[in-house]
Structures are given as C-alpha cells and as structure tokens.
Design a protein that fits this description.
Length: about 180
Amino acid sequence: MVDVFSKGIPQDITQILKSRDMRVREQLILLKKLNNNQSLINAKLNIPGPIKNNAYLIQVFYRGLKRFLQESKVDYRLIWDVATGPEAFLILDGSAKDSKQAAIEFEDNDNLGRLFDIDVLTEDDGVPHPVSRQDFHQVGRKCIMCDQPAKVCARSRKHSVKEMQNYISELINKNVELL
C-alpha cells in the first residue's frame, strides 16, 4: 500500500490563509463572468494535516474531478496546482441549484467524492457566498471515518490527523491505481 502522505511540502496556517484569500479573489472575478444559466464551482480536496498536495493527491483530484464532471458542460476551467492543495474553478452550464445537487450527490456517494469539497458559489453584496446543503434540507456532511456529523468530530478532534491520513490512504489505494 502506498502511503499517500509520505511526500509533499508541509503547509502552515499562514500559507493556508493566503491561499484562501487568493481563492476568494479568483471567485469574485469569475462570478462577474457568469451568464444567467451558469454556475461557478470551486472544487478542492478536503485533506487533514500539513501535507495538502503531492503526486498522489493530484491523481486523486483529477480522477475525482473527471467523475464529478462526467455529465456537465464546462464553459470555463482553471486548475491551480499549489502547495496548499489542487483546486479547480469551473463555470458550468446550469443553475447553481442543479450544480449543488450534483455536488451533494458526488460528495456523499462517490468513494472519491468523500475527499472533495465542492462549493457552488453565488454573489451576495460583492462577496462570494457558497450555496449550502441546508438550502436543500440536507444535513451537514458526515465524518469520513465514523458517520457522525463532520463538524462535531472536527471540533472535538475525535480522530487524530494520523488516523484520518491512514484511513484516507487506504481509501485512495482501494479506489485509485497510484503511479
């Protein structure tokens, strides 16, 4: 079995916050490009610990993104391969509502989808605003390890980073033939 987290450049909170600021700027630019029946998607991996990107995680990202987009018409695609993790900015044909429903289906039911955080964004007073699962009367995401609410496990630190990384490595090894 390949240890998915054996390589990579550790990231700290400063780098992650800087990446978040760059992400918001890009989202604002792209929201202004949307036509009436288009939606803006920001897809990234939800990876615990300091290693957020390496050759293995890139493979998972592209494989999962391809699965998510298999029935979508993509009008615009920008991929960031940055140390804080790969990200995709996509403009898709279709409403934000339809895109969010597809994202929920993928995140909840695809083995690789469990590793993704797919935001569908709208603009609210000049600020990118993610469409929420609650807007569709959906419960929040479940923990990848124990099916409890993910926010509860994260706040309480129920699972160690190492436990989550081991679980994710096993999941990836079962679902992706790593090069």
